[in-house]
């Protein structure tokens, strides 16, 4: 009797022998994408949401309804942090993000839409869906916030390398499963399988044995007369393949980081020259994203005449305050004659002072004006 063929044919559902079908290609790619991008995109988004939207009108920073909407409550279901986090993820993942305004003034991030560009006319957006609700009307370009973040390196990664790495890591997982798989057999006396009743009893015993082995770390089961149990592979495998998978994930995560300008040193925990690395991160990774958001908001909220008059929304992102003493830096900037106190106040997000001396340039740590230095000390 071909006992092995008989067992396999009667137990096609034995997933301990055929686990490969559970590792679908699509699941592997989705998991790899989440592992690789979450660590990078998540860190970038967390930096972006620490920014503050400052509304400037008539050379003064004001806190009005626009300020409240951008910094506190963009819609009834999201806070500013949740709202900005979702926008950042959409820009990094998809390269674009559409925000529409409903009838009661809520700004809503669209999940999907169709764009109809028409030559010489403004774009329109139709079939806009937000949280499974589809708007029945079209939105004109002037009525929406449409953020577009173009990065060819990210697009190349998204469109190409996910498939390659996903297939490769899937093969490595399959190899690891094969190495760790328990393989066993049962020798069945051919005299036991002559009638249908005996065959059913034998099959039931085999099923119970397999279930016991699968569910228990220590499995004990009685052997019936005429049946012998034997394991062909007792090696549970090594960690080599798991380490390879970890290295591969780290390698892909670094590729994503390089594409968006996120410092690889942050991923590795390298703290050498952290100030310079952080400055470059904020300048070349965070600032371009914030500039896209800031420009689109100003286009939506201000007319040309207002913007040219100085009215605008400025995004003040997180600074280097955790890396060095800010007061010392300001002292050097002012006392060196490089900036006036009012220029420092404006750059720091404070209102300009009406004191005329705040518009003068000073030299030395005694805060003497340049006019005083040229004319000598006065008694």
Task: For this entry, give a set of tags.
17% strand; 4-stranded antiparallel sheet; 13 helices; alpha+beta; elongated; 379 residues
Task: List the topology elements.
Layout: H1 3-10, H2 25-48, E1 52-57, E2 60-62, H3 65-71, H4 80-94, E3 96-101, E4 107-109, E5 112-118, E6 121-130, E7 133-134, E8 139-140, E9 145-148, H5 152-180, E10 183-188, H6 196-215, E11 227-233, H7 240-260, H8 264-268, H9 274-301, H10 304-308, E12 312-316, H11 326-335, H12 341-347, E13 362-363, E14 368-369, H13 370-375
Antiparallel strand pairs: 1-2, 1-12, 3-4, 3-9, 5-6, 6-7, 6-8, 10-11, 13-14
Helix pairs in contact: 2-4, 2-5, 2-7, 5-7
Would you give an account of this structure?
It is a single chain. The protein is of the alpha+beta class and 379 residues long. It has a domain at 325-379. The protein has helices at 3-10, 25-48, 65-71, 80-94, 152-180, 196-215, 240-260, 264-268, 274-301, 304-308, 326-335, 341-347, 370-375, and strands at residues 52-57, 60-62, 96-101, 107-109, 112-118, 121-130, 133-134, 139-140, 145-148, 183-188, 227-233, 312-316, 362-363, 368-369. Strands 5, 6, 7 and 8 form a four-stranded antiparallel sheet that branches. Strands 2-1-12 form a three-stranded antiparallel sheet. It is elongated and about 110 Å long.
């Amino acid at each position: 009797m071909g006992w092995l063929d008989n067992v396999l044919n009667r137990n096609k559902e034995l997933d301990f022998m055929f686990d490969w079908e559970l590792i679908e290609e699509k699941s592997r790619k989705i998991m790899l994408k989440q592992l690789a991008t979450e660590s990078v995109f998540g860190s970038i988004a967390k930096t972006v949401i620490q920014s503050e939207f400052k509304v400037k009108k008539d050379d003064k920073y004001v806190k009005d309804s626009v300020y409240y909407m951008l910094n506190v409550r963009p819609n009834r279901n999201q806070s500013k942090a949740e709202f900005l986090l979702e926008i950042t993820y959409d820009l990094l993942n998809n390269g674009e993000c559409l925000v529409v305004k409903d009838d009661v003034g809520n700004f809503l991030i669209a999940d999907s839409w169709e764009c109809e560009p028409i030559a010489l006319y403004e774009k329109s957006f139709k079939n806009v869906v937000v949280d499974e609700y589809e708007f029945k009307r079209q939105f004109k370009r002037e009525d929406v916030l449409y953020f577009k973040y173009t990065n060819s390196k990210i697009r190349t990664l998204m469109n190409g390398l996910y498939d390659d790495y996903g297939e490769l890591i899937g093969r490595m997982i399959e190899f690891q499963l094969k190495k760790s798989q328990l393989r066993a057999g049962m020798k069945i006396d051919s005299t036991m399988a002559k009638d249908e009743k005996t065959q059913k009893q034998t099959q039931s015993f085999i099923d119970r044995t397999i279930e016991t082995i699968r569910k228990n770390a220590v499995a004990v089961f009685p052997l019936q007369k005429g049946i012998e149990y034997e394991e062909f592979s007792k090696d549970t495998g090594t960690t080599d393949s798991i380490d390879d998978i970890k290295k591969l994930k780290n390698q892909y995560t670094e590729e994503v980081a390089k594409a968006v300008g996120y410092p690889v040193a942050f991923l590795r925990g390298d703290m050498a020259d952290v100030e310079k690395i952080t400055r470059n991160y904020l300048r070349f990774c965070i600032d371009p994203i914030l500039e896209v958001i800031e420009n689109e908001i100003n286009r939506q909220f201000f007319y040309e005449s207002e913007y040219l008059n100085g009215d605008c929304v400025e995004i003040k992102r997180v600074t280097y305050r955790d890396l060095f003493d800010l007061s010392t830096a300001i002292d050097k900037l002012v006392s060196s004659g490089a900036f006036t106190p009012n220029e420092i106040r404006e750059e720091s997000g404070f209102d300009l002072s009406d004191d005329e001396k705040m518009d003068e340039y000073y030299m030395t740590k005694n805060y003497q004006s340049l006019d005083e230095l040229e004319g000598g000390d006065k008694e």
